[in-house]
Amino acid sequence: MNILVLGAGALGAYLGGRLLEAGQNVSFFVRQKRAAQLSIEGLKINSPEGNFESRDVTICTSLDEVGNIDVVILAVKGYHLDQVIPQVQTIVNQTGAFVLPLLNGMEHMEKLHHAIGNEKVLGGFASIVATLNQHGHVEHTSGTSTFKFGKLHEQQTEICEKLEVLQSQVKTKLVREENILKSMWKKYIFITAFSGITSAMQLPSGFITSSEATFAVAKKVVLEMAMLAGREGIILTEKEVETAINTLTGFKKEATSSMHQDMRKGLSIEVEHLLGGALRLAAKHRVAVPVIETLYGILKPYENGRLNM
Predict the structure, then answer these.
(1) Which residue of 29, 190, 212, 269 has the lowest C-beta tally within 10 Å?
(2) Structural domain of residue 251, as residue ranges?
(3) Which pLDDT score is estimated for 309?
């Protein structure tokens, strides 16, 4: 199978590296700066799931360099989505490839459906805590990683079957989900709470339960997000909601969200894609989400990186 990873940040480089390690035909579509870094440093993963390094990495920076592709793994941040959609459109038109987006949130799905058609967009998401170090190497800091995918259209059955075959070959959990849409919402609920609270606190996960008041805020974000899911037709049981709340407490004390890591580095953060997206859904359904609105207001000034005072 011919796989193009669009975006080689920590997420794209990790999954793309694992697929490359498994012998798949993988290429990376990246910007010039990242291409130069990969050319010099190679692709390197430091991970509890096993280290990997390769200097034999196929890199594309121009659409003319993209050849025969079966699936595009879209692994960019939400704030880069609008920039890359024209590239995704061209690649799909040229190759007929399917697109597996691994973005957080849900707003990207509607944008991709509009750009390339419902039948071309798989459902999917990633569960991993990773970042790039100063050399552009992946530092995987959570104990495990999981990448889930599933069909949202009957025309996607065959490509999902091909992806499913890879799960026994890669050093990560590559899981096919029958109800991928519900699973995507569960991830959206969790990551909005986890990213929002760690970034607003500017502290790692161990501090979520350091005070009853702080944990109450995190729980209220989960409840507000679960309510929005219900308005969108995704009904969660009380047990599923409770599991999402409990998951917030299951990390090592020093672990934190990717948003908080980006914030500490002075990088752009996905406040608009996650919390802003939730606010737009709330407005659509004419419901109030006061805790999400408050976290959005706290984090919005950091959207484009470190503040210059």
Answers:
(1) 212
(2) 182-302
(3) 47
